[in-house]
Amino acid sequence: PSRTFHGNNRLLTSQIVSHYESINQGEKDVPEYFNFASDVLDKWTQLEKDGRKPANPAFWWVNDKGEEVKWSFEELGSLSKKTANVLSEACGLQRGDRIVAILPRVPEWWLLNVACMRAGIVLIPGTSQLTAKDILYRLQASKAKCIVTNDTLAPAVESVLSGSQFLKSKLIVGLGSRDGWLNFKELL
C-alpha cells in the first residue's frame, strides 16, 4: 500500500513502482551508471528549487535527549559533497577505496553513507560494539585505507593500528582532537 509523506498528496511509492515497471518493459533505458547521490538526491533538490516538489526534510534525526538535526535535500546534498571532498582530499581516498565506519547512529553516519555513494568509495559499516580484535579483522580483511570513529572507540582502533598495514588515514567524529587523527567537523 502507498502512503503520503508529510502531507504530500503525490504517492511516492506508486511513482517509484511506475518508474521501475517502465524500465522493465523497455520503455525507459536502464542507466549505465547509477549514483543515488546525483541521480536521486540532487534531482530532488532541483525539483524543490524549481517549486515542482514541496519542501520536506531529506533527513531528520532526533536523539534520546530530544536534540534534532534536520536537513533539506539541498543541505544534505551540499554537506555530502563537502564530506566527499574531505574523504578524497584530506583522507586521500579514490573511487573504489574502502573506508570502515564504526560510529553510533549519529547524523555523520548517514552523511558518510551519502558521501561515499557520491564519491564511489566503498563504505564498510561497523557497529559501535566491535572489540579491538573485531576492528583489526575488518581492517585486514577489507584492506580499508581509512577508518572513521568517535572519541569513545578511538582507543580500540589505536590498539590495533600496528596490524593494519593498508590504513592511511584516521578520521574522528567528535568535539575534541586526538594525535594522529583528522577531525571530521573541523575539515567539514
Automatic annotation (TrEMBL):
This is medium-chain acyl-CoA ligase. The gene is Acsm3_2. Its EC number is 6.2.1.2. InterPro entries: AMP-dep_synth/lig_dom (IPR000873), ANL_N_sf (IPR042099), Mitochondrial_ACSM (IPR051087). It comes from the Eukaryota. PANTHER family: ACYL-COENZYME A SYNTHETASE, ACYL-COENZYME A SYNTHETASE ACSM5, MITOCHONDRIAL. It catalyses: a medium-chain fatty acid + ATP + CoA = a medium-chain fatty acyl-CoA + AMP + diphosphate. Pfam families: AMP-binding. GO terms for biological process: acyl-CoA metabolic process; fatty acid biosynthetic process. SUPFAM superfamilies: Acetyl-CoA synthetase-like. Signal peptide: none annotated. Belongs to the ATP-dependent AMP-binding enzyme family. GO terms for molecular function: ATP binding; fatty-acyl-CoA synthase activity; medium-chain fatty acid-CoA ligase activity. Keywords: ATP-binding, Fatty acid metabolism, Ligase, Lipid metabolism, Nucleotide-binding. Residues 52-171 form the AMP-dependent synthetase/ligase domain. GO terms for cellular component: mitochondrial matrix. The lineage of its organism: Eukaryota, Metazoa, Chordata, Craniata, Vertebrata.
